[in-house]
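Follow-up to my post from last week.
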Amino acid sequence: MEKDQNNILDEVTNSEYKYGFFTDIEMDTAPVGLNEDTVRYISAKKNEPEWLLEFRLSAYRNWLTLTEPSWAHIHHPPIKYQDIIYYAAPKRKKELKSLDEVDPELIETFKKLGISLEEQKKLSGVAVDAVIDSVSVKTTFTDTLSKYGVIFCSFSDAVQNHPDLVKQYMGSVVPSNDNYFAALNSAVFSDGSFCYIPKGVRCPVELSTYFRINAANTGQFERTLIVADEGAYVSYMEGCTAPMRDENQLHAAIVEIVAMKDAEVKYSTVQNWYPGNKKGEGGIYNFVTKRGICKGSHSKISWTQVETGSAITWKYPSVVLMGDNSVGEFYSVAVTNNFQQADTGSKMIHIGRNTKSTIISKGISAGQSNNSYRGLVKVIKRAENSRNFSQCDSLLLGDKCGAHTYPYIKAENHSSIVEHEATTSKISDDQLFYCKQRGISTESAIGLIVNGYAKEVLQHLPMEFAVEAQKLLAISLEGSVG
Amino acid sequence: MLSIRNLKVSIKGKEILKGINLEVKAGEVHAIMGPNGTGKSTLAYVIAGREGYEVSEGEIIFKGRNILELSAEERACEGMFLGFQYPVEIPGVSITNFLRTAINEQRKYRGLDPVPATEFLARMEEKKQLLELQEKLASRSVNEGFSGGEKKKNEIFQMAMLEPSLAILDETDSGLDIDALRIVATGVNKLRRPDNATIVITHYQRLLEYIIPDVVHVLFDGRIVKSGGKDLALQLEEKGYEWIRNES
Ligand SMILES: Nc1ncnc2c1ncn2[C@@H]1O[C@H](COP(=O)(O)OP(=O)(O)OP(=O)(O)O)[C@@H](O)[C@H]1O
Ligand SMILES: [Mg+2]
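User reply:
Got it. Predicted complex:
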């Protein structure tokens, strides 16, 4: 019986990536490899001010002194940093006034991804900043947003149009020498999103960015910076799918969030990059540094992520709880299948008094994949009366996959409470048979059970995302059914 | 409707069902009684197509077709329903979502489009009233944290929603209080039609006062050793299984 179930799970979980397609667009690329000239090339291409070039160069020099981290529970062949093209941009002919002027190939790509800009514009009221490879192609809703004083644009545009804000906050949460991949990003970042919500403004729409990696041998290095000024609120959605490629693609992004006094930032991610094929060949290497700082008192930063893609995920969205009474949250579902590896979790650093953090992590492993939760909860001495609750659950589909939990807790005062709970479970034969007896196929049953399992996390996603994420969970475990 | 011939089933090499014969016609209600561990649930599971049982002999004909080769979900889509003796919890999946998925998968099997949302909700309302179900039950996760009685009621609710042609109710009455028993039994009776059939597995004659069976079978040590009218249940209750043991 046990064996039967494993066979079924094998069949069901051995699926190919659904979003494998490749858009053919003329590219404007940097020479292969990385040296100071590459950094200067990128900076010049983007017409950047001197200070930013200096920022990049110092990050590059820092990067040379650092080594790749080796503590994560992941394995991969050495990354050949000198074989990577560090800059590629769709050729921009002229300023685009409407969607009609957007390259039809791009529009086609969006349609395949199920995110027609047109539809989004009309129906959902979502402002979309679409990033294809390195340069933002189209930003919508900027007008509506500007009425509220909300700035939502590509990072490059922000550098040109709001240099003071960028200069003030960039690198203030994730310093350019924070870690190996952060240093790399800081040296060669191409584009990304910038978002500023002024004092007291509740951003009227969900801000959404779709990232997409689209050129052979092109590492992608986005950089996102979100600043919510005093009393501001914003919900930000990042979603991505990548076309199928044979060669591994390196991805090392940085996301920085700053929440001032009484501000709240909700950051949601659905990550569905190419995970590699059934044999474990290809797929994206996703080494991301995401961190937010609750700078002012009573501020709140909340990360919600659904991670189903990438061959390797290395990612620990964190919150530095500096302001008194600030709140940090991390809700995560990570699905690994076939030979995928995920080492993900969160860091909650309690510095202010009465700070509160919650970590809910649901790992779902299938095939021969490895899924690790790694988390740090640190409460420093002066962070009196702080609280953390962490819950890390693992669900195993089959018996060839691995689930691991590495919680690190450092509490330096006695008035704070840090709680950690962990469970490991399997989908039982009884549950599967119960579903099947009602006419539900094994595939759908697994999708249903897995979604139920992840509900606690999914319910924190914005509506627009939740449905997509539910489908994705089912798809990534069985390939075709939603 | 259902015709079982000389069915022999073993689990891990141990024979549990030793040649079952059973004939259930459309419109009929059959009751199966018998001591603990004689194979009642095993029979129900094998009919419903649960994996892990070795069928060494015999056949199960359902609506004119040998279904031994069909998967559990195919049998369900053909109109077979099993009310579980021990319903399973599925955390985080609401009854509404579960039932909508089930109904739509069954419709897909029959080549139909998904049920329109309004029609589905109307049916939910109707069946909830039929079984005097609490309003909020349907939004709760399937069986999660349900009391024993609530689980059993939920099984009948699902049966009402799925409208099967053959329902096998495995000890649906155990764990029900007097009122719940009456409600469930009334529900089953209201759902009776000339073109469907019900098999109730029970230990108690009490249920059969509400759901009047056409035939009562006694399953004993893997065989149906006695069949009769509803009086057989009464006799059993009076004399106990010793009586059967001595007779057979
Ligand atoms: N998976 C299994 N592995 C081993 N033995 C089993 C298994 N399932 C059932 N059996 C055995 O088969 C026999 C019949 O069990 P079954 O559950 O069908 O009895 P039952 O008539 O439904 O009993 P009850 O009235 O207690 O519900 C029992 O001896 C039981 O222990
Ligand atoms: Mg039983």
